Amino acid sequence: MADLDTKIVNVLGDKTAKPLAKHLDMHVVGDLLRHYPRRYVELGRASNLSSLQVGQHATVLARVVEAKNYSFGPGGKRTRTEVVVTDDTGARLSLTFFQQKWLAERMKPGSMCLFSGQVGAFNGKLQLTHPDYDLFDADGDTAESRLSRGVLPIYRATAAVPTWKLETCVGLCLDALDQLDDPLPDDVRAARGFPDLRAGLESIHRPHGMGEAVNAQKRFRFEEAFVVQTVFAQRRRALEHERASARAPIDGGLRDRFEQQLPFTLTDGQRTVVDEISTDLARTHPMHRLLQGEVGSGKTIVALMSMLQVVDAGAQTALLAPTEVLAAQHFRGITALLGDLARSGMLGSADVATRVRLLTGSMGAKARNASLLEAASGEAGIVIGTHALIQDHVQFAELGLLVVDEQHRFGVEQRAALVDRAAVKPHVLVMTATPIPRTIAMTVFGDLEVSTLRELPAGRQPIQTTVVPAAERPAWLERGWQRVREEVAKGRQAYVVVSRIGGPDDDGTNETHSLVELHDELVGGQLHGLRVGALHGRMTPDEKDATMNAFAAGDIEVLVATTVVEVGVDVPNATVMVIMDADRFGMSQLHQLRGRVGRGSEAGLCLLVTGSDADSPARERLDAVASTTDGFELSRLDVELRREGDVLGAAQSGVRSSLRLLSVVKDGEVIDDARSAADAVVDADPSLAGHPTLAAAVHDLEHSEQADYLERT
Q1: Which residue of 104, 476, 499, 688 pairs with 695 in a disulfide if CB–CB is 3.0 to 4.6 A?
Q2: Segments making up each domain of the chain, as ranges
Q3: Where does the Helicase ATP-binding domain lie (predicted)?
Q4: Do residues 30 and 177 touch, judged by C-beta distance below 8 A?
Q5: Which CATH architecture is the domain 463-628 placed in?
Q6: Which CB contacts under 8 angstroms, 24+ apart, belong to 192-197?
Q7: What SS3 state is found at 141?
Q8: What's the alpha-carbon Rg for the chain, to the nearest Å?
Q9: How far is CA 225 from CA 348, 557, 668, 696, 700, in A?
């Protein structure tokens, strides 16, 4: 007998186990049985052949119409077998086999067969050449057993391990299974009418009807959500017992003075979020809050007001940024916003002023030591920096609040370094400009409260986004360069964004524009006579700062850059952005990039240049970006047009690796239900001592190398 931890080789033998390990990374029985069918075929119905597309790897169930042999080659010694199959609509598909003459006898008209292979075309008709196949009426008892169930599972497979081989392996493992301990508590399962783990695996892999398969899918979809939510329920409970110093607002303090001198009024959304954070900061257990908002929605102002509240209360704050460019941008922006409120101890400073310090890895020794000293002494109320802030020798007199910008760019240990070092836990605010639907936030940031800024501050200008199909309409691209010249002639500035610096593409080709080549081409051609600069990740920090300062000062009119300008770069005079090979970027990334223009008094223009075909998925994504400036709507469209894992991104790989059936965007009700159930279980049994199988599942998820999505703060 076997359980889910039994090695596959012990059940199936070495010959079968090796391709499963090599091609599908399956090593134990659980790997195989948690590889659920991606769809089912009811055996009374053939596949819809008209939905096939050239280039896809397809598995189809079809009925044989005819099979004929044809001789070819010198002396007619070689054989080509042509098999024609059909579906329930009468659509037909040709299958071609070479040197398998006996197939014409085996493929009897009317027999049902599974075929798997790459869809091609010949003389305008779809065909499969030398597909793998599984003929139902050819394997006796096995075929009868499969046909009697009426529902056939179709698995995500490879050419080396087709779906029917997976089905056979799964069946052998199911037959070898002993009774299994279930991570779902009995009462949780019973309340929802779900089968136990052993029965559920049988139903999802060998159902006797679609209703049975669907209920099993519901069970495992809920289980995935439940384990993740149990992790977060335990974490939320643990946070309740951690202590932090309350940082209540002080009337007439630095925060009040700052708000009084702001040249604009906070939006209703900003005011609401400031109040939410202010309430959290006044409590004696640590705040853990996610602040998300559109590009330009005013997150920095909200974060700064929260930081000033903590400074008013006698503590320090740290702002952690992912790049030196962004850290320097924050330092300049916050210092400028505070004015004399950032000049504590200097002539003419305000009586409630503090100091703002920058700390990055590339700073000179003198400036670095000054920043370190003021952080350690407490003179600097606000310290802004990169990973350099995390180093062991960086000390704070009393760190009261950690703000993490673009949090997805930091690993778990990096985020934890500052928090764990403090004797009293600081409050934590993490920010992202990538809009996240509520259900993703619940699954990926389940231990964080979520605040959302949706409205843009008054005065922000609209951004017109246009797709430029360079291959079909080269004149449009030429017109795009003319628009850049026209904007510069009006005294404005422009970005040109590329996907790579130089050298070949990731796939070894040179199909996309490189920064080096495009910069030289523009300087000598379309933008001749303009002041064109370049910015990319291989430049030294000093070179980057000098370039950005020159662009901000207007000394550079057109900046050709990589995605280093994606976040934080704020040049209000920039009104146009040309994104080359835009199909190489994700929808959220394009949305972030275009947020760099239209930040001043003039409207923004973003041109998405692409060579992709008009009816391709890549063009569909670009059209979606051009159709709306609502980042939350784009998040929804992104899920519809791309695989969900791509939307979640690498930082959430722990969630991705554990979710096989659950859609964190589409299954909001399941996630809500699972969260309520997990809270009830953890409230009754915080250590899960009475639920050892659930505790083991939680441990596996929390301690997997991929579980970077867990905020250890």
Answers
A1: 688
A2: 8-189, 254-453, 463-628
A3: 280-453
A4: no
A5: 3-Layer(aba) Sandwich (3.40)
A6: 192/218, 192/219, 192/222, 192/673, 194/218, 194/219, 194/222, 195/219
A7: helix
A8: 30
A9: 57, 50, 10, 15, 15
The confidence score (pLDDT) of residue 489 equals 96
Nearest to 578 by CA among 506, 476, 509, 472: 476
pLDDT, one tens digit per residue, over 502-511 is 765 544 555 7
The C-alpha atoms of residue 568 and residue 291 are separated, in whole angstroms, by: 16
Residues 267/458, Cβ–Cβ less than 8 Å:
yes
Half-sphere exposure of 467 (CA within 13 A, CB side): 21
Q: Which three-class secondary structure string do you get for 197-264? A: HHHHHHHHHCCCCHHHHHHHHHHHHHHHHHHHHHHHHHHHHHHHCCCCCCCCCCCCCHHHHHHHHCCC
| CATH architecture, range 254-453 | 3-Layer(aba) Sandwich (3.40)
Residues in contact with 339: Cβ distance below 8 Å, sequence separation at least 6, in sequence order: 261
pLDDT score for 45: 66
Phi and psi of 118, rounded to 5°? -85, 130
Three-state SS at 46: coil
Superfamily for domain range 8-189: Nucleic acid-binding proteins (2.40.50.140)
What's the confidence (pLDDT) of residue 510? 59
- Strand ranges, E, within 459-500: 463-469, 493-497
Domains 8-189 and 463-628 share a fold: no
Sign for the CA dihedral angle at 687, 692, 695, 696 comes to: positive
CA distance 300 to 128: 56
